[in-house]
Amino acid sequence: MSPETAGYGCEVRAEGPVYGTGETAQYVLGTFQTISPVLALRWLRGEALRIADRLDPDPNRSAWVRPAMRQGTAAAPDCPTELRVWADGLEEQRAAREGIKGGDPLFVVVRDTDCAYTLSVWPVRLPTNDLGPPWPESVCHRVGGVSRPLYVLAGDPWRQGRAPYPS
Fold first, then answer.
1. From which domain of life does this come (predicted)?
2. Is pLDDT of 71 > 50?
């Protein structure tokens, strides 16, 4: 049996320290399932921008930032900027789409000062059944008396658990 891609699972996680305990915890920020690698990457890009805007609103897109506040500063790599660069990178998106179509999972890990965000997509595989039909052949049975003959298929899944004829 060879696996066949039936869809794609997507997930966004955050992992960081728990205050005062010295332990780390993982939080699932969102999940998504789709049949298309294009839709999976579109959802992941939207989640990357959502996280980036929550951590540090983009001054070029934010309605809160006044023109005087949009001064050029030295670009320092930080988590929101890395998420925005990944979400806007067309070549990276094309390469990611081709990898996902080929059956490879995608993991994008972006670290912040005390947290790491993981954006992931993986193919969901279903085994193919080369052994024959998924259920046995139906057999016709006669149910009921001579005055009310009723023929029921034994393999009919809709009849399971019900009386063969109305009472």
1. Bacteria
2. yes
